[in-house]
Design brief:
The complex is a heterodimer of chains A (113) and B (113). In chain A, β4 and β5 (43-50) form a beta hairpin. Chain A has strands spanning 5-7, 10-14, 19-24, 31-37, 43-50, 55-58, 61-66, 71-76, 85-95, 98-103, 107-112. In chain A, the strands form 2 sheets. In chain A, strands 2, 4, 5, 9, 10 and 11 form a 6-stranded mixed sheet that branches. A 5-stranded antiparallel sheet of chain A has the order 1-3-8-7-6, with no helix packed on it. Chain A is globular and about 50 Å long. Chain A has 113 residues and is mainly β. By secondary structure, chain B is an all-beta fold. The radius of gyration of chain B is 13 Å and the shape is globular. Chain B starts with a strand and ends with a strand. Classes of the chains: A mainly beta (113), B mainly beta (113).
């Protein structure tokens, strides 16, 4: 089963509205990362939040992490049509020599002009 | 920096042919990752290298797949012989280390007919 699961799978909003995407995971993590992927392109790293951090900001992006609930959320404020993309969370787990970044299946965001 | 550079961008080949995908990571990044992305299975890690040494190749589907990193600035992923089910987008990514965010290349879209 997936370590990281994004919710919702798809989201459609109007330009100017806020978009919130959630990610849940199962095991303890070292950090959690959010990426964006535009259609036909590679993934772009947005924010990395470490397990001892609770909130991080980058421009219009705000990421929260609740390790007790094993969940994270990505908030995009004042969305623009250019924010239309798929958004993935990835959890970095480290157990001895086993280090892995495990990906969810993504949330598809459509921002309508 | 030009980012992670992958070639070719598109490859169409016949079943049974050998396919070689190439990647140039960002200078100074010690970790390099090969991923495969399909609609059905999402993003799958095939193999990752740290300091040019393969660390985890458990995601390589079968013996038809092989990857090399002869030096810090170049890696190849080879499929021989190729099969239609190998059709996917293959991404290369690099990072300063496994705990850091990744920079992805633009991907190679492989179609095996």
């Amino acid at each position: 089963s997936q370590q990281g699961e994004e919710d919702p799978q798809a989201l459609s909003i109007q330009e100017g509205e806020n978009a919130t995407m959630n990610c849940s995971y199962k095991t303890s993590i070292n950090n959690l990362q959010w990426y964006r992927q535009n259609s036909g392109r590679g993934l772009v790293h947005l924010i990395l939040i470490r397990s001892n951090e609770r909130e991080k900001h980058s421009g219009r992006l705000r990421v929260t992490l609740d390790t007790s609930k094993k969940s994270s959320s990505l908030l995009i404020t004042a969305s623009r049509a250019a924010d239309t993309a798929s958004y993935f969370c990835a959890t970095f787990i480290e157990a001895g020599n086993n280090r892995k970044l495990i990906w969810g299946l993504g949330t598809s965001l459509a921002v309508n002009p | 920096d030009a980012g992670v550079i992958q070639s070719p961008r598109h490859e169409v080949t016949e079943m049974g042919q050998e396919v070689t995908l190439r990647c140039k990571p960002i200078s100074g990044h010690n970790s390099l990752f090969w991923y495969r992305q399909t609609m059905m299975r999402g993003l799958e890690l095939l193999i990752y290298f740290n300091n040019n040494v393969p660390i985890d190749d458990s995601g390589m589907p079968e013996d038809r797949f092989s990857a090399k990193m002869p030096n810090a600035s170049f890696s190849t992923l080879k499929i021989q012989p190729s099969e239609p089910r190998d059709s996917a987008v293959y991404f290369c990514a690099s990072s300063p280390g496994p705990r850091y965010g990744y920079t992805f290349g633009s991907g190679t879209r492989l179609t095996v007919v």
